[in-house]
Design goal:
Rossmann fold, binds nicotinamide-adenine-dinucleotide, Dihydrodipicolinate Reductase, domain 2, six-stranded parallel beta sheet, about 25% strand, alpha/beta, about 375 residues, nine-stranded mixed beta sheet
Length: about 375
């Protein structure tokens, strides 16, 4: 086994730059190949980031030195692509969501288990100093026992800046499947597994218009609810209110946790940085718990997973976590459609804290 973990990337789109800027700096990782349906796009990214080879997914999978494949394709093909990787005997680190439905997610999970490989899925933002500090603060008892959470993600929608936003408004996307994983994963890290959800969902308009890039001005259909309100109940007690919206001119990114002895305002769960504010009875001003700068962003979970594989332990962003979050999102969709609360069958434990000194950019 080489000293570094060989990695291949499938999907050379918008988010691949952020991954490559991190993975090419991690001393434990060697990015060996970039694949995309659009092979010219893959070649351009390989040239930009000094990756030796690019081409098709089949060529990538034929490289025996690649142990982990990063799946940065669009959500509709996450499972199809991940299954090919698993069939080639390689581990997957994927972008969220895990899948678009429970059945295909379970098939992928079982296939990985049978093949003895791991399928882990973003978000890994909670490994950053921002959320790690927030979680350490709450787990350390700063607000007593957490009793309720508030998670708000409200924007006018990504079609103004994303050059190919159609997939974000298609079945299996929308604000909840696109951004919900950051908020729901954070809530699960605080409260543990979700037991039941209730929800409403609405859509402000039937079509949207692309605002940037070569397709600017093109109208496309909105297939999913674009404003979702959910009530989330946790197995261990406690509940949370969550709003996921592409319909709001009022931009909000909020994660707040109320506890028996105080309250905590978390940093934006779609980032790796940000301080935590702790509100205690009798104190006029909150205490600011500084998190410091993140040494790395997207791809951090892959570095931690590569280490976990070598050490023969479970990774901190395991497939079971993304699978549970997917189950919660599908359950919220079902609650919207049925108008009834939906029980969530799957479960997961919060992940152990990271050593604050852990640094994937250090040798
Ligand atoms: N754009 C962001 O800011 C952002 C942030 C966080 C996470 N993500 C997630 O990253 C993933 C990719 O998003 P993006 O914005 O980079 O999308 P994108 O459309 O810009 O890029 C996707 C790329 O995947 C390729 N692709 C699609 N199907 C393929 C297949 N079957 N085989 C090989 N290549 C294929 C496409 O050709 C394209 O180059 C999504 O799951 C998204 O939720 C995106």
């Amino acid at each position: 086994m080489s000293a570094r973990t060989g990695v291949g990337i499938i999907g050379a789109g918008t988010i691949s730059d952020e991954y490559l800027s991190n993975l090419t700096r991690f001393p434990s990782i060697e990015v060996r190949f970039i694949a995309d349906l659009d092979e010219e796009r893959a070649a351009a990214q390989a040239a930009k980031w000094g990756v030796a080879a690019s081409g098709s997914t089949a060529e990538l999978l034929a490289d025996p030195e690649i142990e982990i494949v990063v799946n940065l394709t669009i959500p509709a093909v996450h499972v199809e692509v991940a299954k090919q990787v698993v069939a080639a005997g390689k581990h997957v680190w994927g972008e969220k969501p895990y899948a678009l439905d429970r059945e295909s997610a379970r098939e992928l999970f079982d296939a990985a288990r049978a093949a003895g490989v791991r399928v882990a899925v973003a978000p890994d933002t909670f490994l950053g100093p921002g959320l790690q500090t927030a979680l350490r603060t709450v787990r350390g008892g700063a607000i007593g026992t957490p009793t309720s959470g508030l998670a708000l993600f409200q924007t006018p929608g990504p079609e103004s800046w994303h050059p190919s936003p159609e997939f974000l408004f298609a079945q299996g996307a929308g604000p909840m499947f696109d951004v919900g994983p950051y908020y729901l994963t954070t809530l699960v890290q605080v409260f543990g597994g979700v037991k039941r959800v209730s929800a409403t969902g609405t859509k402000s308009r039937e079509t949207r218009v692309i605002g940037s890039g070569p397709k600017a001005g093109t109208e496309f259909p909105v297939e999913v609810p674009t404003h979702i309100n959910a009530l989330i109940e946790f197995e261990a007690g406690g509940s949370a209110l969550a709003t996921f919206s592409f319909d709001s001119q009022l931009r909000h990114t909020v994660v707040e946790i109320e506890g028996t002895e105080g309250a905590a305002a978390f940093p934006d769960p779609n980032t790796f940085e940000g301080d935590t504010l702790v509100y205690r009875p009798g104190q006029e001003e909150p205490e600011r718990i500084e998190a410091g700068e993140a040494r790395s962003t997207r791809g951090t979970g892959l570095a931690e997973m590569a280490e976990a594989i070598r050490e023969g332990r479970r990774e901190r962003v395991p497939g079971e976590l993304a699978l549970h979050v997917l189950d919660v999102m599908v359950s919220i969709s079902e609650a919207i459609d049925s108008g009834q609360p939906v029980d969530v069958a799957s479960s997961v434990e919060p992940s152990p804290a990271l050593d604050p000194a852990w640094d994937p950019t250090a040798a």
